[in-house]
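Suppose you are handed only two things: the residues of a chain and a line of SMILES describing S-adenosylmethionine. What would the bound structure be? This form records exactly that question and the answer produced for it, so the two can be stored side by side and reused later without any lookup.

QUESTION INPUTS
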Amino acid sequence: MTFRQSLIALSKSKSAKAWLARQFQDPYVKQRLSDPQAYRARSAFKLVEIDSQYYHFLTKPDVKAVVDLGAAPGGWSQVVAGKLGWDESRPQEEAASTAAGVGGEDVSKATGDYGLDADMTWSSMTRVPTRRPRRKVQGELLAFDPLNIDFVNSDEIASTTGRGTIVALDLLRMQPIHGVHCIQTDFLSPEAERLIHGLLSVKGNPEGKVDVILSDMAANASGNQVRDIESSLEICQSVFEFARRNLRTAEDIGRKRGGVLLMKYFTHPLLQDFYIKKLRPNFHDVKSIKPPSSRGDSNEAYFLCQGWKGDS
Ligand SMILES: C[S@@+](CC[C@H](N)C(=O)[O-])C[C@H]1O[C@@H](n2cnc3c(N)ncnc32)[C@H](O)[C@@H]1O
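ANSWER OUTPUT
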């Protein structure tokens, strides 16, 4: 089904009509669509806004290892790749498919709250050209089977080389982004951390530590509010435990403050408790943020936790 056919199918239901009306009036969606080379997802603007309002934590020159959890379709990873100096130009096949809006099977499958709209099709997310077998990553060969990993390195497309390592992980397969290692797996599965760690452990970072952890993960809404809050809490707790094991401390970096964790949550008293008991004691500074581009009718917000103190 083409994108146009998908739109016609979508426009028949009342909720889809409301969704389309909101999309077409949204200034962030308009801004994103005005440039076919720009961000794949509206959510990219949330990260841009948070970074520029809160000390440019992504832009610091010593930020060299970033993990993006729940990264698909890749808006945040594009922002990070740009900040770390990887050329933002995208592989030819992706630019062509998104610019022309061609060939989707069913856009409704991919139109989550994060705004896969107008130019993004289901097929462009799933039919990623696979480049097997082993590939070089900053002069080193991956130490494990890269079955679910894509990395677009600098000799595959003409562009600049950035600094550092970016790892993006999602349940969904992502179109490649230059400079970004993409892993398709469940973050809550036992192998996720091993895969991430394997990619981060490179020359200059033998311990595979992380400067910035981003999590925009959100479990699919089940319609059951209690279950949804529990899922959100489970994700936040797992991300925090991951941060505890992997974030760089101040001593590691040679700065006053340790690593940074930016994590989405959904407002609920249980999450406030998590903030008070887990986040506040372990970071120098924790803020709860609702960026301007986050929709007013969504109860999502972000914890920006700066200065990991390290396990004592
Ligand atoms: C709001 S979207 C992220 C948008 C992304 N930040 C961007 O800019 O393109 C949330 C993502 O979290 C992913 N997700 C949810 N639970 C996950 C899990 N357990 N493991 C990996 N990814 C997960 C979903 O597949 C979805 O793609």
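WHAT STANDS OUT: The CA atoms of residues 11 and 18 lie 9 Å apart. The chain is about 35% helix and 15% strand.
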